[in-house]
Amino acid sequence: MNTVIMYSNQPSSLDAKKYTLSDLCLKPLDSNACLTYSPLDYWSNNASHLFSDPSILKTLSLTNKISPIGMLVPLNSVFGNAVYKKKKIVSADSIILTYFLKGMEDCNESQIMTIWEAIWNQIINDTDTTFRLGENRIISVNMNHQGKLEHLYFNSDRNGSLVKQALLMLAYLIFPLFTLSSARLDFVRSKSGLIFSAVAHVFASLIMSLSICSRFGITLTFASVSWKLLPFILILIGVENTLILTNAVTAIPMQLNVEERVAKGLEKVGYTITKMLISWILVLLIFSVTSIDSIQEFCIFTSIALIIDYMLQISFFVAVLSIDLQLFALETICTYCNDNDNTDRDVIPPSKTANYGRRIGGSLVVCINF
């Protein structure tokens, strides 16, 4: 780095000297470059090698990498809070770059550290810190001095990403609501209640799948764009099965009780729903054979989520549907009773008041006994 600062180790500023990072750092005997210890050692400190590497994570998985100074480069020493999967690094919170400084005759240790901090402050001031880092736009870089450590914090513009996440969550909610609200749900009491139940059990299956993966040590990086499509896949399958099941049950004649209607509905479409589940899992197992970790994670997690979603469909949603049908049947009978009451009140002569009372009493008994 060619950044120059003026620093005086004497009380008078007239004695200020020019210092660069090259003046402070230790250099190998056969090189004019500063001696460093960093992840760049995996690419021999060559930027062109880094940019042309087709698989950076695969390169970092090498366990016998030797730095230019003849030292092994453990990943824990060059990355902060590294996360591993199958003994391969998948992410980290920070990158650690170590510079080896040398002593100078005209400066003591505290003065060298002051020059070191001043150089980095000047580097940040002279550098355009507005750039993109992956999907995030870096708007500024801050530095925090902690003894001999310099912590550089990259501040990203999160407004854009927050807006995208909010729109994505809104789409997750609108998609099933629009699909179910536009569907034909006849002979149910609360259409909105069934819609809410269908959406709730889909998101519950996602949360339970995360818990199961975490319990069995399945690491999920969520680095692939395909993860954003997962809720849509579950919603599509869950909503379709929900509609199939609801229509099958409501198609059974209302003369039967609710338990028989639900049983006959499950008997009618249970095979179709189960066959669809098995087909999806087989497809996901075929794609999980690939060596790409993100696709394997997606296939495993989706398979678990589909199985849980299937179990919730035949347990939670069936229970909600049964309650709704029971209330609908009770409401229908009570409405019929009220209609008969109004009809009898209009057509029965006053002389037959006793018979009229017996009819009303019989109707009320029917409503109560149901």
For this entry, give a set of tags.
single chain, 370 residues, mainly alpha, Multidrug efflux transporter AcrB transmembrane fold, three-stranded antiparallel β-sheet, two-stranded antiparallel ribbon, 11 strands, disordered C terminus, SCAP
Task: Write a structural description.
This protein is mainly alpha-helical and 370 residues long. It has two domains: 5-157, no CATH class; 159-353, Up-down Bundle (Multidrug efflux transporter AcrB transmembrane fold), CATH 1.20.1640. The chain has eleven helices and eleven strands. It has a three-stranded antiparallel sheet with strand order 9-10-11. A two-stranded antiparallel sheet has the order 1-2. The chain has a two-stranded antiparallel ribbon with strand order 3-8. A hairpin with a 2-residue loop joins strand 10 (136-146) and strand 11 (149-156). Mean pLDDT is 73; it is low at 6-15 and 350-370. This is Sterol-sensing domain of SREBP cleavage-activation-domain-containing protein. Residues 161-323 form the SSD domain. InterPro entries: HMGCR/SNAP/NPC1-like_SSD, SCAP, SSD.
Q: Which word captures the global form? A: elongated
Proportion in β-strands: 5-15%
Low-confidence stretches: 6-15, 350-370
Strand order of the largest sheet: 9-10-11
Average pLDDT score: 73
Helix content: 55-70%
Quick one: CATH class of the largest domain?
Mainly Alpha
The helix tally amounts to: 11
Oligomer: single chain
Find the CATH superfamily of the largest domain: Multidrug efflux transporter AcrB transmembrane domain
Number of domains: 2
- What is the CATH topology assignment of the largest domain? Multidrug efflux transporter AcrB transmembrane fold
InterPro entries: HMGCR/SNAP/NPC1-like_SSD (IPR053958), SCAP (IPR030225), SSD (IPR000731)
GO cellular component, one term: SREBP-SCAP complex
Organism: Gigaspora rosea
Transmembrane segments: 166-183, 195-217, 229-249, 269-287, 299-323
